[in-house]
Design goal:
two-stranded antiparallel sheet, globular, single chain, mainly alpha
Length: 166
């Protein structure tokens, strides 16, 4: 059976994105744990953060980054490292939304608030956190427009037809 290799992680360089969404957490998250973590098509996890192509640390610091080694071990994933830092579902969606905005293609996160979060409070929180990226120093104007459009479309589902005001 295939299993992803986990490199050394820290609070500043961590696992995020789809892989993090498939680690049990406080929200629904994704449900493809074995497909993602035991894939014959992937050999290693994708790291986010310091020194990586994908880095939202300047915006969110260490928000939502936790040692999930024990959780992964319960599901049959072992690591030679003492800790395995993984983004929670909030941070994973924020990281994915940032990467999508940089590409001006939000398709991978469309419906993310509905798919990965359970309560209206959780859904509102993710949109409020995403709005922090709209600062000009994080995203160019066209990237901000893509993110803002995503936030407004996601909010229509939460606020019964009324878009989130960003």
């Amino acid at each position: 059976m295939y299993k992803l290799t986990i490199p050394k992680t820290t609070m500043q360089t961590y696992i995020s994105g789809t892989q993090a969404l498939n680690v049990p957490d406080e929200t629904s998250g994704d449900w493809h744990f074995y497909t993602v973590w035991f894939s014959p098509f992937e050999e290693t996890v994708t790291l986010y953060g310091e020194g990586q192509e994908r880095n939202t640390n300047e915006i969110y610091g260490t928000f939502g980054i936790y040692d999930k080694k024990a959780v992964l071990e319960r599901y049959g994933i072992s690591s030679e490292t003492p800790e395995v830092y993984v983004a929670n579902h909030y941070r994973a969606i924020l990281d994915l939304a940032y990467c999508c905005a940089k590409r001006k293609r939000m398709n991978p996160v469309i419906g993310g608030t509905m798919d990965y979060f359970d309560t209206e409070e959780q859904k509102t929180m993710i949109l409020e956190l995403a709005a922090k990226m709209l600062d000009v120093k994080y995203l160019a104007e066209d990237e901000q427009a893509a993110l803002k459009d995503w936030i407004q479309k996601e909010s229509i589902h939460i606020y019964r037809g009324e878009p989130y005001d960003v």
